[in-house]
Amino acid sequence: MKKKIIITFFFILIIPIGIIFWKFNEFKNEPYQKTPFFDLFIAKSMYKTNEETPWRDFWDNSWQNVSKENKRPIEWISNPKDFEKLDSVYLGFRNNTNEKFYYVTWGEPNSRIRENFLVYRNGKIDSIPFGGFGCGTGIYITPLKNGEIAGSKFLNPLLFNPFTNYFLPLKNKKFPQLFKEIYGDSVAIKYEQATYSLPWNKFPSQMIESKKIVISTERIIENWKKGQFKLSPEFEKENEQSFYIKENGEYILSSTYEKKEKIE
Questions:
Q1: What is the DSSP letter of 97?
Q2: pLDDT at residue 92 in the model
Q3: Distance between CA 157 and CA 177 in Å, rounded?
Q4: Phi, psi at 115, each rounded to 5°
Protein backbone atom coordinates (compact mmCIF):
# COMPACT_ATOMS: atom_id res chain seq x y z
CA MET A 1 0.00 0.00 0.00
CA LYS A 2 2.79 2.40 0.90
CA LYS A 3 4.51 1.58 -2.38
CA LYS A 4 1.37 2.52 -4.34
CA ILE A 5 1.08 5.78 -2.44
CA ILE A 6 4.71 6.62 -3.15
CA ILE A 7 4.29 5.82 -6.86
CA THR A 8 1.09 7.84 -7.05
CA PHE A 9 2.71 10.78 -5.28
CA PHE A 10 5.70 10.51 -7.60
CA PHE A 11 3.49 10.72 -10.71
CA ILE A 12 1.47 13.59 -9.23
CA LEU A 13 4.72 15.46 -8.61
CA ILE A 14 6.70 14.55 -11.72
CA ILE A 15 4.00 15.25 -14.31
CA PRO A 16 3.52 18.96 -13.42
CA ILE A 17 7.29 19.41 -13.17
CA GLY A 18 7.74 17.77 -16.57
CA ILE A 19 5.09 20.03 -18.11
CA ILE A 20 6.72 23.12 -16.60
CA PHE A 21 10.15 22.24 -18.00
CA TRP A 22 8.65 21.35 -21.39
CA LYS A 23 6.90 24.71 -21.53
CA PHE A 24 10.06 26.48 -20.37
CA ASN A 25 12.03 24.81 -23.15
CA GLU A 26 9.46 26.07 -25.65
CA PHE A 27 9.79 29.54 -24.12
CA LYS A 28 13.60 29.47 -24.55
CA ASN A 29 13.29 28.53 -28.21
CA GLU A 30 10.85 31.27 -29.19
CA PRO A 31 12.50 33.32 -31.98
CA TYR A 32 12.06 36.66 -30.18
CA GLN A 33 13.19 35.35 -26.79
CA LYS A 34 16.73 36.57 -26.08
CA THR A 35 16.63 36.26 -22.29
CA PRO A 36 15.39 32.78 -21.28
CA PHE A 37 15.22 33.49 -17.56
CA PHE A 38 12.88 31.36 -15.48
CA ASP A 39 11.23 34.30 -13.73
CA LEU A 40 10.32 35.79 -17.12
CA PHE A 41 8.79 32.46 -18.06
CA ILE A 42 6.72 32.49 -14.86
CA ALA A 43 5.67 36.08 -15.54
CA LYS A 44 4.57 35.21 -19.07
CA SER A 45 2.68 32.14 -17.82
CA MET A 46 0.81 34.19 -15.20
CA TYR A 47 -0.30 36.95 -17.56
CA LYS A 48 -2.19 36.77 -20.82
CA THR A 49 -0.17 37.74 -23.88
CA ASN A 50 -1.09 39.00 -27.32
CA GLU A 51 -0.63 36.04 -29.68
CA GLU A 52 0.24 38.29 -32.63
CA THR A 53 2.96 40.26 -30.82
CA PRO A 54 3.92 38.23 -27.72
CA TRP A 55 7.40 39.81 -27.51
CA ARG A 56 5.84 43.21 -26.73
CA ASP A 57 4.04 42.15 -23.57
CA PHE A 58 7.21 42.15 -21.49
CA TRP A 59 8.25 45.71 -22.26
CA ASP A 60 5.22 47.63 -23.49
CA ASN A 61 5.25 49.56 -20.20
CA SER A 62 9.02 49.91 -19.99
CA TRP A 63 8.87 53.39 -21.53
CA GLN A 64 6.08 54.72 -19.34
CA ASN A 65 6.40 57.60 -16.88
CA VAL A 66 5.20 56.90 -13.36
CA SER A 67 4.22 58.94 -10.32
CA LYS A 68 6.89 60.19 -7.92
CA GLU A 69 6.11 57.55 -5.29
CA ASN A 70 6.49 54.77 -7.89
CA LYS A 71 9.82 55.96 -9.25
CA ARG A 72 12.55 53.36 -9.07
CA PRO A 73 15.40 54.39 -6.71
CA ILE A 74 18.46 54.47 -8.95
CA GLU A 75 21.97 55.82 -8.36
CA TRP A 76 23.43 57.27 -11.56
CA ILE A 77 27.21 57.13 -11.80
CA SER A 78 29.20 59.60 -13.90
CA ASN A 79 31.84 62.31 -13.60
CA PRO A 80 30.54 65.63 -15.01
CA LYS A 81 34.12 66.82 -15.55
CA ASP A 82 34.65 64.00 -18.06
CA PHE A 83 32.04 65.67 -20.26
CA GLU A 84 34.20 68.82 -20.40
CA LYS A 85 36.70 66.98 -22.60
CA LEU A 86 35.79 65.73 -26.06
CA ASP A 87 36.84 62.14 -25.46
CA SER A 88 35.31 59.09 -23.78
CA VAL A 89 32.95 59.31 -20.80
CA TYR A 90 31.57 56.74 -18.38
CA LEU A 91 27.91 56.41 -17.46
CA GLY A 92 26.29 53.79 -15.27
CA PHE A 93 23.35 53.22 -12.95
CA ARG A 94 23.15 51.14 -9.78
CA ASN A 95 20.08 49.12 -8.76
CA ASN A 96 19.07 50.31 -5.28
CA THR A 97 15.57 48.81 -5.29
CA ASN A 98 16.23 45.70 -3.15
CA GLU A 99 14.80 43.64 -6.01
CA LYS A 100 15.89 42.46 -9.45
CA PHE A 101 14.61 44.26 -12.52
CA TYR A 102 15.42 44.21 -16.23
CA TYR A 103 16.54 46.93 -18.61
CA VAL A 104 16.13 47.18 -22.37
CA THR A 105 19.37 46.72 -24.31
CA TRP A 106 20.96 45.94 -27.65
CA GLY A 107 23.39 43.60 -25.94
CA GLU A 108 25.48 45.84 -23.67
CA PRO A 109 24.89 48.64 -21.13
CA ASN A 110 23.99 52.06 -22.55
CA SER A 111 23.30 50.62 -26.01
CA ARG A 112 19.61 51.64 -25.78
CA ILE A 113 19.95 54.67 -23.55
CA ARG A 114 18.36 57.96 -24.59
CA GLU A 115 20.08 61.37 -24.62
CA ASN A 116 18.16 64.61 -24.28
CA PHE A 117 19.82 68.04 -24.51
CA LEU A 118 18.90 71.42 -23.09
CA VAL A 119 20.85 74.29 -24.67
CA TYR A 120 21.21 77.54 -22.69
CA ARG A 121 21.84 80.56 -24.90
CA ASN A 122 21.53 84.26 -23.98
CA GLY A 123 19.23 83.49 -21.06
CA LYS A 124 16.94 81.25 -23.13
CA ILE A 125 16.56 77.48 -23.12
CA ASP A 126 16.20 75.36 -26.25
CA SER A 127 15.59 71.62 -26.07
CA ILE A 128 16.99 68.99 -28.40
CA PRO A 129 14.94 65.89 -27.54
CA PHE A 130 16.02 62.32 -28.22
CA GLY A 131 15.52 61.61 -31.91
CA GLY A 132 14.95 57.86 -31.77
CA PHE A 133 17.09 54.83 -32.56
CA GLY A 134 15.53 54.25 -35.96
CA CYS A 135 15.25 50.49 -35.45
CA GLY A 136 14.03 48.14 -32.74
CA THR A 137 15.48 44.96 -34.21
CA GLY A 138 17.54 42.92 -31.78
CA ILE A 139 16.50 44.62 -28.54
CA TYR A 140 15.85 42.51 -25.47
CA ILE A 141 15.82 42.82 -21.70
CA THR A 142 18.68 41.84 -19.43
CA PRO A 143 18.60 41.53 -15.62
CA LEU A 144 20.13 43.82 -13.03
CA LYS A 145 20.22 42.42 -9.51
CA ASN A 146 20.02 44.55 -6.39
CA GLY A 147 23.30 46.42 -5.87
CA GLU A 148 24.61 45.68 -9.37
CA ILE A 149 25.75 48.39 -11.80
CA ALA A 150 25.07 48.57 -15.52
CA GLY A 151 27.50 50.94 -17.17
CA SER A 152 30.06 51.48 -19.90
CA LYS A 153 32.36 54.02 -21.52
CA PHE A 154 31.35 55.67 -24.78
CA LEU A 155 32.24 58.72 -26.82
CA ASN A 156 31.22 62.05 -25.33
CA PRO A 157 27.92 62.91 -27.07
CA LEU A 158 29.17 66.49 -27.49
CA LEU A 159 31.59 65.16 -30.11
CA PHE A 160 28.63 64.98 -32.49
CA ASN A 161 26.20 67.36 -34.15
CA PRO A 162 22.92 66.46 -32.37
CA PHE A 163 20.86 67.44 -35.43
CA THR A 164 22.61 65.07 -37.84
CA ASN A 165 24.71 62.76 -35.59
CA TYR A 166 27.80 63.46 -37.71
CA PHE A 167 31.25 63.89 -36.16
CA LEU A 168 32.11 67.50 -35.38
CA PRO A 169 35.19 68.79 -37.28
CA LEU A 170 37.71 68.95 -34.44
CA LYS A 171 40.57 69.95 -36.75
CA ASN A 172 38.70 72.97 -38.13
CA LYS A 173 40.07 76.23 -36.68
CA LYS A 174 36.53 77.60 -36.52
CA PHE A 175 35.39 74.69 -34.35
CA PRO A 176 34.79 76.96 -31.29
CA GLN A 177 32.36 79.14 -33.24
CA LEU A 178 30.49 76.15 -34.64
CA PHE A 179 30.36 74.49 -31.21
CA LYS A 180 28.81 77.57 -29.58
CA GLU A 181 26.30 77.89 -32.41
CA ILE A 182 25.14 74.35 -31.67
CA TYR A 183 25.48 74.14 -27.88
CA GLY A 184 25.11 77.78 -26.79
CA ASP A 185 26.63 79.08 -23.56
CA SER A 186 26.14 75.78 -21.74
CA VAL A 187 24.37 72.51 -22.39
CA ALA A 188 22.64 70.01 -20.09
CA ILE A 189 22.37 66.30 -20.87
CA LYS A 190 19.75 64.03 -19.33
CA TYR A 191 19.76 60.27 -19.85
CA GLU A 192 16.78 57.90 -19.91
CA GLN A 193 16.67 54.11 -19.78
CA ALA A 194 13.65 51.84 -20.27
CA THR A 195 13.26 49.20 -17.53
CA TYR A 196 10.98 46.19 -17.04
CA SER A 197 9.60 44.98 -13.72
CA LEU A 198 8.33 41.51 -12.94
CA PRO A 199 4.62 41.45 -11.97
CA TRP A 200 5.45 40.89 -8.29
CA ASN A 201 8.01 43.71 -8.06
CA LYS A 202 7.32 46.70 -5.83
CA PHE A 203 8.23 49.22 -8.52
CA PRO A 204 6.44 49.06 -11.90
CA SER A 205 8.04 49.00 -15.35
CA GLN A 206 9.14 52.52 -16.19
CA MET A 207 11.55 54.89 -17.87
CA ILE A 208 14.25 55.88 -15.40
CA GLU A 209 16.02 59.21 -15.86
CA SER A 210 19.25 60.72 -14.62
CA LYS A 211 19.77 64.18 -13.19
CA LYS A 212 20.94 66.82 -15.65
CA ILE A 213 24.66 66.97 -16.36
CA VAL A 214 25.44 70.64 -17.11
CA ILE A 215 28.56 71.49 -19.14
CA SER A 216 29.98 74.93 -19.93
CA THR A 217 30.80 75.31 -23.63
CA GLU A 218 33.63 77.70 -22.71
CA ARG A 219 35.24 74.93 -20.66
CA ILE A 220 34.91 72.55 -23.62
CA ILE A 221 36.54 75.11 -25.92
CA GLU A 222 39.35 75.80 -23.41
CA ASN A 223 40.15 72.09 -23.27
CA TRP A 224 39.92 71.86 -27.08
CA LYS A 225 42.53 74.63 -27.38
CA LYS A 226 44.77 72.56 -25.08
CA GLY A 227 44.38 69.59 -27.43
CA GLN A 228 42.26 67.62 -24.97
CA PHE A 229 39.99 65.96 -27.48
CA LYS A 230 39.53 62.68 -29.30
CA LEU A 231 42.26 62.06 -31.86
CA SER A 232 41.04 59.68 -34.55
CA PRO A 233 40.55 59.78 -38.33
CA GLU A 234 36.77 60.14 -38.01
CA PHE A 235 37.07 63.54 -36.36
CA GLU A 236 39.66 64.82 -38.81
CA LYS A 237 37.33 64.40 -41.78
CA GLU A 238 34.83 67.12 -42.58
CA ASN A 239 31.32 66.47 -43.82
CA GLU A 240 28.67 69.02 -44.69
CA GLN A 241 26.29 67.28 -42.27
CA SER A 242 28.58 68.27 -39.42
CA PHE A 243 27.80 71.94 -39.99
CA TYR A 244 24.01 71.85 -39.91
CA ILE A 245 22.29 73.81 -37.16
CA LYS A 246 18.65 74.50 -36.32
CA GLU A 247 17.48 78.06 -36.78
CA ASN A 248 13.86 79.24 -36.52
CA GLY A 249 12.67 75.65 -36.64
CA GLU A 250 14.60 74.83 -39.82
CA TYR A 251 17.87 72.97 -40.40
CA ILE A 252 20.38 75.18 -42.24
CA LEU A 253 24.09 75.16 -42.91
CA SER A 254 26.05 76.95 -40.19
CA SER A 255 27.45 80.35 -41.08
CA THR A 256 30.74 78.88 -39.89
CA TYR A 257 30.73 76.48 -42.79
CA GLU A 258 29.62 79.11 -45.31
CA LYS A 259 32.40 81.50 -44.22
CA LYS A 260 34.93 78.67 -44.43
CA GLU A 261 33.82 77.89 -47.98
CA LYS A 262 34.20 81.55 -49.03
CA ILE A 263 37.69 81.74 -47.56
CA GLU A 264 38.74 78.61 -49.47
A1: S
A2: 97
A3: 18
A4: -115, 125
DSSP-derived letter for residue 86 is B
How far, in Å, CA of 162 to CA of 128, rounded?
8
Selection from 264, 241, 237, 263 nearest residue 254 by Cα: 241
- Total residue length of the chain: 264
Q: Distance between the two ends of the chain, CA-based, in angstroms?
A: 101
Banded model confidence at residue 31, pLDDT cuts 50, 70, 90? low
Most confident of 32-36, 61-65, 83-87: 83-87
Q: What angle do CA 14, 37, 55 make, to 5 degrees?
A: 110
- Please state, in angstroms and rounded to a whole number, the distance separating the CA atoms of residues 215 and 219: 8
Helical axes 255-263 vs 175-183, angle rounded to 10°: 160
Angstrom distances, CA of residue 124 to CA of 121, 190, 225? 5, 18, 27
Instruction: Please provide the DSSP assignment of 175-214 as one string.
Output: HHHHHHHHH-SEEEEEEEEEEE--TT-SSPSEEEEPPPEE
Kindly indicate the confidence band of residue 33, based on its pLDDT and cuts at 50, 70 and 90: low
Tell me the pairing of strands 206-209 and 186-196. antiparallel
Confidence (pLDDT) at 184: 94
CA distance 113 to 237: 27
